[in-house]
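Progress note, sequence design subtask.
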């Protein structure tokens, strides 16, 4: 059973009218649970624990979707290595290095690459 860390049912305080839901975070989710398998249109985050990089890649690739993948790590080289293994149209990572922030996109989309080339983002090809 996943653990509810924050949020849950109901509207956020101060948003009594309109179609709003609280930002919600679940922990201890497995990739077999519907909350991990289905698209949720709202501010909902599920955290699936893993032990190895290979296990994380296998979990991320175990989906019928694949428009984008997001990677959070403190190692920019790891971010690039993992992004190249993901089956997604683009992989976006925010990796903190000792020299500062490294924002990068690994993409198979020439249009996205052209757009990113004119920004502060670094573009790498799959």
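Output:
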């Amino acid at each position: 059973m996943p653990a509810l860390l924050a949020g849950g049912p109901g509207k956020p305080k101060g948003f009594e009218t309109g179609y709003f839901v609280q930002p919600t975070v679940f922990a201890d989710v497995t990739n077999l649970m519907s909350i991990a398998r289905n698209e949720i249109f709202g501010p909902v985050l599920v955290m699936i624990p893993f032990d190895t990089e290979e296990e994380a890649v296998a979990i991320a690739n175990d989906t019928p979707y694949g428009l984008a993948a997001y990677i959070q790590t403190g190692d920019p080289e790891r971010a690039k290595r993992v992004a190249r293994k993901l089956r997604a149209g683009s992989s976006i990572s925010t990796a903190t290095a000792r020299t500062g922030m490294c924002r990068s996109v690994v993409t198979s989309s020439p249009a996205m690459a052209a757009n990113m080339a004119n920004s502060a983002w670094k573009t790498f090809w799959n």
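The chain is about 25% helix and 30% strand. Work on this subtask will continue into the next period as scheduled.
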